[in-house]
Amino acid sequence: MRILFLGAPGAGKGTQSKKLSARLRLPHLSSGDLLRENVKEGTQTGVVAKSYMDQGNLVPDEILIDMFRARLTGPDCANGFILDGFPRTLVQAKALDQLLIEIHHPLTAVINLQINDPLLVERITGRRTCSNQSCQAVYHVKFSPPGNDMICDHCNNPLIQRSDDKEELVKQRFTVYAHETEPLIEYYDKKLLLKTVDAEGDRDNIFALVLQTLKVPV
Ligand code: AMP
Question: Fewest CB atoms within 10 Å of the CB: 24, 38, 50, 73?
Fold first, then answer.
């Protein structure tokens, strides 16, 4: 399967795509994670990307397109993949279409995580992630806190807040989403790939809906 997740910031793309990746044993390709790895390693891409990410803006299309071309043509993606956060603009979506035609692997479905939650900003600003790169478990200070104060339940490393999850940047990320990414819903609907899933509520219930939508046994 070749699945793409769409959704506003905080809709749960990361959580649901990681769960689906584990369930289907397919690589989880998160644009945000790939960019943050580059930032952490101080690569040239990371230095450029950071200046956009720190403002809550999108990183230029060419950077993402080159990154995903390299990644999607890798041997681990031959049997499928789960895309999380790419594409985020029409230019990226068209480049992805072209690439998938070249490698003869069209998308199976696009899952749009639909959320209309007045608490969305609180959900994002309260989000904390494990600082251990190979764990990256996600918590929420109020809605799903760790057992031990700000320490990861899985690997005992400290939890951190993503710099762009601070309140002042979250509003800008919503504006960018509405202008640049929301039009992809119609784009994939016209291609008859779009499947909308109600993403409000418990993450396990939402995951059951995702599996049902993809006709994967729960
Ligand atoms: P995320 O972890 O998916 O919320 O992404 C964090 C940040 O990385 C975004 O706010 C953007 O600055 C950048 N980013 C992630 N994916 C893309 C993309 N497909 N195109 C441009 N910028 C992106």
Answer: 73
Catalytic residue among 23, 69, 71, 162: 162
pLDDT digits 0-9 by tens, 186-210: 999 999 999 999 998 888 999 999 9
Pairing of strands 127-130, 81-84: unpaired
Q: SS3 of 168, please?
A: helix
From 58, 96, 129, mutation site for ligand 1 pocket: most ligand atoms within 8 A of C-beta: 58
Give whole-number Cα distances, 31 to 45, 71, 104, 117, 189, in Å: 13, 11, 22, 24, 22
CA neighbor of 170 nearest in space, from 55, 34, 37: 55
Query: 31 alpha carbon to ligand 1 midpoint, in Å?
Result: 6
Q: Please say whether the beta carbons of 172 and 55 come within 8 A.
A: yes
Instruction: Calculate how far, in angstroms, residue 41's C-alpha sits from the geometric centre of ligand 1.
Output: 17
